[in-house]
Amino acid sequence: MKQRIDLNVEPRTTGKSVSRALRNDRKVPGVIYGALENANVSIYEGDILRYNVRSYENALFNLKSTDKKTDGKVVLIKEVIVHPVTRRPQHVDFFALDLTKAVRVFVEVKLEGKPLGLAEGGLLNVVNRQIEIECLPTDIPDNISADISAMGLGDALHVYDLKVPAGLKIISGTELTIAVVNAQEEETAKPATEAAAAGAAPAAGAAAPAAAKDAKAAPAKAPAAGAKDAKAAPKAPAAKK
Predict the structure, then answer these.
(1) pTM for the full predicted model
(2) Alpha carbon of 160 to those of 58, 176, 180, 218: distances in Å?
(3) 37: buried, middle or exposed (CB in 10 Å: 19+, 13-18, 0-12)?
(4) Segment 121-169, tens digit of pLDDT
(5) CA–CA gap between residue 127 and residue 124 (Å, rounded)
(6) Residue-by-residue DSSP string for 64-118
(7) Which numeric CATH code is attached to 103-183?
(8) Could you tell me the residue ranges of all domains in the chain?
(9) Closest of 89, 84, 81, 77 to residue 44, by C-alpha
């Protein structure tokens, strides 16, 4: 049977001022829903910080409370809202379980071994690290392991390749890719001559406008010379008869 962790909670009233006062006392307001009527509780901030990590993602918690309605209830931590700046927990949602009914959760796929394709120059690309399953709360696994040591270059691991314990139903699509061994993309360096040519190309392009400028300058001088000669003609002395 999956181990359960005792967790102390206290009943609370609602309201912004109440929630603010709780946070000032290093307590986190929360709500319990699911297999019971919604209940408002508070919990020590340190407990949330301790258990709001991946290793306790699907842990079963046995509530301890002075409120008989919530005392002894088995719950999952469903969501923790944290402050965007301080990262302190601001609110927590607990999901109360009926241990006789199946529940849907996401579990990690733990990859075991080193793919053969890595020796062939491949790279392991993990596409999806979790899959959704359905089972009784007491049968929730810590993870689902998959041996990928035989994966060669271009091989992929899909959901239908996974071997799961009896009593566990996979909800995620069977075609969903978990991991694939891809070939590395080779970066081809340009030859030095190409790099030099590429660097020289802008210089040649820059010289072309300069030549065009000189070409345009020539016609500008021609009319000036013609105009000078035209003005000089009237100044020539007239022939005496």
Answers:
(1) 0.70
(2) 23, 8, 14, 80
(3) exposed
(4) 999 999 999 999 999 999 999 999 999 999 999 999 999 999 999 899 9
(5) 10
(6) E-SSTTTTT-EEEEEEEEE-TTT--EEEEEEEE--TTS-EEEEEEEEEES--GGG
(7) 2.170.120.20
(8) 4-96, 103-183
(9) 89
